[in-house]
Write a structure and sequence with these properties.
heterodimer, A: 310 residues, two-stranded antiparallel ribbon, 14 helices, 4 strands, 3% strand, B: 505 residues, alpha/beta, Rossmann fold, 3 domains, six-stranded mixed beta sheet, 24 strands, globular
């Protein structure tokens, strides 16, 4: 295990131990464990694509809006087409991710502003499609969510799906050319380009995966809420970025990976859950997330790559 | 001239890992003097100037400025002493005006209670500009000025700065100031420099020997990191400088000439009147299977741009490129690679390698798709293939898993070479493949280059010195100001460096 993961792992263990010792009754309960996993899985699945995006030194700020849009669309499609809602939303995830990627690589707009602009579009679409109100899943469509909600102790179907995705993308990261090129591009886009690698394609694919993982995360959200909400995604944006960078994936690119994001996810989820357990008002939680995100970025940033901070 | 010298650099030595960049180099510059500094690429001119500018610290030797022994710790300190560099890449801000540029960073001198008195800045700028009397307005934006006018603004800024520090005779280093200038502008620059000479000294670095002869009061010739000669005005002409720059006669076995291959008749790459405006014009030549063509020329001859264009990094304005007889468009490195062209960039650390990745990932970076079965990369083959290359090329690394960052220059270059060996390209463009590499590793790289041609690879080489170009090449294409000035045979008998230099300067 690389030293980039040690810090996050120690934090996970530390928080877990502190909460287990101070609040054994409420923290270690099956109910709370399920709630913890519930949050962790949503952050993690949404953060899969962002991990690849950050690994190449870019950022995707459209995740929150995409989550909102996809929950709404997923519910509408579930109610209308049943099972076909899954492939449809995944397809749209890939398409909107591709759009983000093309805006970035072809129009050469920095991802920071390109995806931020796109986020506005996706958020508006979510509000337009839903007319600004949450949309419930019709009882006839409940069955299509069963496999996500099926229980085995405090483990749910969605948790297992997340674990499968973790394994899948760990394989993508280590055992596919794409996965290796992500590291190469993140470390030196110039040298990778000059080695004859189709860098723009690699970069675009990272954004496609980010769109896809937003779609997947929206399934988990809908399975939990039984509704699609055009504003549900906004707070997730910071949490998901936090999960990636706290895990040790550096915003400057080239360092980190899916395993880091898994650890970072648990840090973020444990902090949120821990604050609930000890009874801190939910309104304070983003302060903590915001601060630890900044600290994590400061710790992982490769200063040799940053000449001017703008 | 019984004056005290302004600058004395005495016995300066500077070593880089494996390379003796400066070996007991000494120069003197007197007040009100223009001193030329000439030498081949890699002769040590720029290293010496970087020592003077405080960018490098010398390993030994002493520097006296105005008769006092000094150690120059930083460019900032050099400037405050009255030593300034004006490089080809200009250090001016194009979006600001002349007067803002001149006083950049020193606005405090013109401000009261934090409010800058622009009137005073403009008045002072006007006075300064009058000294050169070129009709430059203090209000002009730098991007509106010509290259030469921007140079003058930089020089004025340095003169003003040294006056602030009470230095009456500053020393200004001009590095290749005329490369992009028109004939007339060169004349004007020289006239202005002769006028300014009343209160400045200049170290003038140039490949254009005719200009050095015309302008300089004295000239130092450097060769292989050492002083090769020093002449006073009237003692030297272009031919003498050339001979001294090249120095020793070329000797062949260092470059394994006995292993040189007679190129096959088959043409791999053909260029037909390739032109990129402002870089090169009407470049045509043929490259055969197993052939090495060196492109010789000074900085600004267009040779670097030509190689970038061949690898899809710069678009051509006109002309045709044929690969195996087929007309091709090369618009990106990935496309060039798909066509079978590889490229070894000059800046190995930034462009040639992904330094933070292990050796094996760098060796195989171009061929991961070839090493995959279905969607999956065969990591076993990736490692074993890299291991083979490490053994074959004798790359000194603790293991295939070591980061490239930790390898020496020569071994890093071998990693780059093995990348292209594995990727089976037909044409390999090499830009300064032995730069910053020690003598032993250089020899090994030459052997590898020979090996590549035996396998039929065709090579376009920009060597680090004329000897390298001559020693390795089958033919030499000489370029000057963007045009081909000659194509010399070097297969049967090797041309002389002093013969070659006639074509390039």
């Amino acid at each position: 295990m690389g030293k980039d993961k040690i810090l996050a792992l120690s934090v996970v263990i530390f928080i877990f131990l502190v909460l287990s010792i101070t609040n054994p009754g409420s923290f270690l309960s099956a109910y709370n464990m399920e709630a913890l996993l519930e949050y962790a899985t949503t952050y993690f699945v949404a953060g899969i694509g962002l991990t690849f995006v950050i690994m190449i030194g870019s950022i995707d700020l459209s995740i929150g809006s995409l989550l909102s849009l996809f929950t709404v669309l997923f519910v509408l499609f579930l109610n209308a087409f049943g099972f076909w809602a899954y492939p449809l939303v995944l397809f749209l995830g890939a398409v909107l991710g591709l759009a983000n990627g093309i805006i970035f690589t072809r129009l050469k707009i920095p991802s920071f502003i390109g995806t931020f602009g796109a986020a506005g579009v996706y958020q508006s679409l979510a509000l337009i499609v839903s007319r600004g109100k949450p949309i419930g899943v019709k009882p006839v469509a409940f069955a299509y969510l069963d496999f996500l909600n099926f229980h085995l102790g405090f483990l749910k179907g969605s948790h297992m799906l997340s674990f499968l995705l973790f394994v899948l993308f760990l394989i993508v990261q280590y055992y596919t050319p794409f996965g290796r090129y992500v590291y190469a591009v993140g470390n030196s886009e110039q040298a990778t380009n000059l080695s004859g690698v189709r860098v723009a394609r690699i970069k675009t694919l990272c954004f496609v995966i980010s769109g896809l993982s937003s779609a997947l995360a929206s399934f988990i959200l809908v399975a939990r809420m039984f509704s699609g909400d055009p504003t549900v995604g906004a707070p997730y944006q910071l949490q998901v970025i936090a999960a990636c960078v706290v895990g040790g994936t550096a915003l400057t690119g080239g360092v980190g990976g899916i395993f880091n994001t898994l650890l970072g996810t648990f840090v973020v989820a444990l902090i949120g859950n821990g604050l609930n357990v000890v009874g801190v008002d939910v309104y304070y939680q983003l302060i903590i997330t915001g601060v630890i995100t900044m600290v994590a970025v400061a710790l992982t940033l490769d200063r040799s790559k940053v000449f001017v901070v703008k | 001239m019984e004056k005290q010298p302004l600058l004395v650099m005495r016995g300066i030595c500077k070593n880089f890992p494996g390379v003796k960049a400066l070996d007991q180099v000494s120069i003197e510059v007197f007040p009100q003097e223009i001193v030329g500094l000439v030498g081949e690429n890699g002769a040590g001119k720029s290293t010496l100037m970087k020592v003077l500018a405080g960018i490098y610290q010398p390993d030994s030797g002493e520097i006296l400025f105005n008769g006092q022994q000094v150690s120059i710790a930083s460019p900032r300190q050099a400037r405050s002493m009255g030593i300034a560099m004006v490089f080809q890449e200009q250090a001016v801000l194009p979006n600001l005006t002349v007067y803002e540029n001149i006083f950049l960073g020193n606005e405090k001198k013109f401000s009261n209670a934090g409010i800058v008195n622009r009137e005073r800045m403009i008045r002072e700028a006007e006075q300064l500009l009058q000294e050169i009397n070129m009709g430059i307005s203090p209000y002009a934006y730098l991007h509106e000025l010509s290259f030469m006018e921007r140079q003058m603004v930089e020089i004025l800024r340095n003169i003003w700065l040294s006056r602030q520090a009470d230095v009456q005779n500053p020393l200004i280093v001009l590095d290749e100031p005329t490369t992009v200038l028109e004939e007339k502008e060169v004349e004007l620059l020289f006239t202005k420099l002769r006028e300014l000479k009343k209160h400045i000294s200049v170290i003038y670095i140039s490949h254009r020997l005719r200009e050095v002869v015309e302008l300089c009061d004295r000239v130092y010739v450097m060769k292989d990191g050492k002083n090769a000669a020093c002449f006073s005005r009237g003692e030297f002409d272009e031919d003498l400088l050339r001979t001294k720059m090249v120095g020793r006669e070329f000797h062949g076995e260092y470059y394994l000439v006995s292993e040189q291959r007679q190129p096959a008749a088959r043409v791999v790459l053909e260029l037909e009147k390739c032109t990129r405006r402002g870089a090169f014009q009407d470049v045509s030549f043929q490259l055969h299977e197993g052939e090495i063509i060196s492109i010789c020329g000074v900085v600004g001859s267009g040779k670097e741009e030509l190689c970038l264009a061949l690898f899809g990094l710069l678009p051509l304005d006109s002309g045709k490129i044929y690969l195996d007889g087929r007309a091709v468009e090369i618009s990106s490195p990935a496309q060039a690679f798909a066509l079978g062209i590889g490229y070894i960039p000059e800046d190995r650390r930034n462009d040639g390698l992904v330094l933070n990745l292990p050796v094996y990932e760098n060796i195989t970076i171009s061929i991961l798709y070839r090493l995959s079965r279905g969607p999956f990369l065969n990591r076993g083959t990736q490692l074993s293939l890299s291991q083979q290359m490490i053994e074959k090329l004798r790359i000194k690394t603790p293991s295939a898993l070591a980061l490239c960052r930790n390898l020496s220059g020569g071994n890093q270059q071998k990693v780059v070479l093995s990348k292209w060996l594995l990727s089976r390209v037909k044409v390999l463009i090499m830009s300064h493949p032995t730069r910053g590499v020690d003598v032993g590793a250089k020899h090994e790289i030459y052997a590898l280059i020979r090996e590549l041609t035996r396998q039929g690879m065709a090579i376009i080489l920009i060597g680090d010195s004329f000897e390298e170009d001559i020693g390795l090449a089958n033919r030499i294409v000489t370029m000057k100001d963007g045009k081909i000035t000659g194509i010399l045979d070097a297969t049967t008998s090797k041309p002389n460096p002093s013969e070659l230099i006639r074509y390039v300067v």
